[in-house]
Amino acid sequence: MPTPIIFDTDPGVDDAQAIAIALAHPDIELLGLTTTFGNVTIEVATHNALLLVELAGQSIPIAQGAAGPLVKTKNPPPGHIHGDNGLGDISLPPVETQALKQSAAQFIVDQVNARPGEVVVVAVGPLGNLAAALQLDPGLVDKVKRVVVMGGSIREGGNVTPVAEANIFNDPHAAAKVLEASWPLTLVGLDATHRCVLDPQSMARIVEAQGALGKVLGESYAFYRNFYQQALGIDGCCPHDSCALVWLLRPDLFSVERGYLSVVTDGLAEGQTLMAPESREFVDSRWSHGTPADVCMNANGSGVIDWIVETLTTHRSP
Ligand code: BDR
Ligand code: CA
After folding, report:
1. Ligand 1, from 8, 9, 13, 14: best to mutate by most atoms within 8 Å of Cβ?
2. pTM for the whole thing?
3. Phi first, then psi: what are they for 87, rounded to 5°?
4. Which label site among 35, 43, 85, 284 has the fewest CB atoms less than 10 Å from its CB?
5. Which residues have C-beta atoms less than 6 Å from ligand 1?
6. Using one digit for the tens of pLDDT, what is the confidence trace for 137-153?
7. How confident is the model at residue 318 (pLDDT cuts 50, 70, 90)?
8. 240 tagged catalytic
């Protein structure tokens, strides 16, 4: 049976590729996309989600969510990484469909309650929608099957500050609520995603296989690739958000440690994620909120890339 998922996203070049996987993979039942600010404004995020689903020839509910962080002042979107339009500033066709009237948080609550114990929420942007859903229905912690978050960094260091990963940094207060809650949670952060580099030749195979959607994935990848060349000196891109789906379907490609997660919400280390290993005791219990999470500490990079390429060259949206 395919796994029913809600995909919470701020598309975003790597989000777009992950959406293509979620739409195409036969082992995923995509219940809907929920959108958040992050790589782009909330309006652009929703526009891009609608467009990507249209280009795949599918009809999937899309619910708009958080326009900004819970507490801190919103950072400007990182146009130099994803482009001002979130898809590498390429020209895009017009969008014909519309988002639901329902909010992202309400959509998550309703879908999880309709199928208690079955739904996995995969969140690959700032975590305001999941924090709001938890506030609407605290019982979600026992009804969601699992929450998979692309975000954070334990030993790898940060990508927007020396210690913080972008999704957590963009809304650390929401991240603290989500990562410290007592639900089954897997964190797929930079410790794993930085081991995975999608090279241009592999991307070309995906473009060829994915039709109109592939064209957008390929052209936006070219912009994102420039950023990686300048920032990290590598020829290729880290497919951060796809890695969350890879973990869901191929957990054997990751090394996982169990630990309690915390998020630093203020000060110089704002947005840093901490993990207190389950097996260790510290001077007091401040670092042990909720239940221990599964935290991806490493990945089989070539295995992950092979899986992504295989998925997007074998399965195409109808
Ligand atoms: C994360 O930040 C965003 O820029 C990407 O889409 C990904 O979700 C990586 O740090
Ligand atoms: Ca993202």
Report:
1. 14
2. 0.97
3. -125, 50
4. 284
5. 12, 14-15, 39, 124-125, 150, 159, 165-167, 240-241
6. 999 999 999 999 999 99
7. low
8. yes
